[in-house]
Amino acid sequence: MNKDVYILSIETSCDETSAAITKNGRDVLSNIIYSQIEIHKKFGGVVPEVASRNHLEKISYIVDSALKEANLTFNDLSAVAVTKGPGLVGALLVGISYAKALSYSLNIPLIGVNHMKGHICANYIEHDIKPPFISMITSGGHTQLVHVKSYNDYEVLGSTRDDAVGEAFDKVARTLGLPYPGGPYIDKLAQKGKETIDFPRIYLDKESLDFSFSGIKSAVLNYINNQKQKNIEIVVEDVAASFQKAVTEVIVKKTLMALERTGAKTLALAGGVAANSGLRKEFLDHLPKDITFVYPSIKLCTDNAAMIGCAAYYEYLDNHYADMSLNAIANLKL
Ligand code: KG4
Ligand code: ZN
Question: What are 272-288's pLDDT values in tens digits?
Fold first, then answer.
């Protein structure tokens, strides 16, 4: 009988300090997340240096809590995994240094995980899906359409050429005077608004699976400035609903093209914006009936270490181990 694989995973790529214990990949025994959002809120965005310092302050406590909640000790671990990129270099290095020290002192394998693979693998935790499938990653830093061909074989079919979709949500929210990060606030307002404003849908070339969101962001800014100049009252709920509709329509159309091109029958949403209720609805309204559609619960959509542990398990099965030279890569590709 095969021995159970217990992985301690660490995620510090941006503004969440998180540690988790996963058993055999998909079974999450603990997933401790400390969010720094309240600290960065007053600056209107993540301040990299502040993020690194806070990771450093919290990491030991978060790792200990993850072990405690899982009822395990360091000696029970099969491997230690850590996000190696993409992300903020200083923030990533806190997790990487901690993971290296644990791997060395416990004499267990070290696994470096791509954060984007983690977002995709968050879907395995709650859904019984397996490759091949299409994943649409919509996060604060990235927008990618990915063909997951097997557990460790990913092909990027399209990416954003400028802003990430979450970034567009956050910038529009900021213009509307909403707190950081603004995505969830836009989502709530949109539910009360009407899609009355015709913001542009940017498709780029007809065949392209790439995205561009900077145009719509500017269109919203122009609309708001124009209304203000004319002394016309701005209905923020309608701006939110119209912006969200324009963005989600493009995402859904391009995803449908990717499904058709690859013949994949499963679609897995991933990343922070996968929590958006308008995006989920737009997919539910337009996906063909024979497509299995999954997305992670809200806690697993945004940054967390359990998704990193799940991705690490499949690297572990293929003996993809890192050594003490493991470094942070800010713009790591899939
Ligand atoms: O994946 P994530 O936690 O961080 C990155 O790896 O970037 O995503 C954070 C992003 C933020 O831009 C946030 O505004 C957005 O996800 N977000 C949402 C919602 N919840 C989080 N955007 C729209 N609607 C939501 N409900
Ligand atoms: Zn993320």
Answer: 999 999 999 999 999 99
pTM listed for this prediction: 0.95
Peptide bond into 132 cis (omega under 30): yes
- The three-state secondary structure class of 268 is strand
The residue whose C-alpha atom lies closest to atom 7 belonging to ligand 1 is 140
Q: Is the pLDDT of residue 42 over 90?
A: no
- Is the N-terminal amide bond of 181 cis, ω within 30° of 0? yes
- Joined tokens for residue 64: 């200990």
Q: Is 25 in the pocket of ligand 1 (CB under 6 A)?
A: no
Closest CA to 19 of 72, 89, 88: 72
Angle among Cα 326, 327, 328 to the nearest 5 degrees reads: 140
206: CB partners within 8 A, 6+ apart:
none
Residue-by-residue DSSP string for 143-201: EEEEEEEETTEEEEEEEBSSS-HHHHHHHHHHHTTPPSS-HHHHHHHHHHS---S-PPP
- Cβ of 184 closer than 6 Å to ligand 1, yes or no, is yes
Query: Whole-angstrom Cα distance, residue 8 to residue 206?
Result: 44
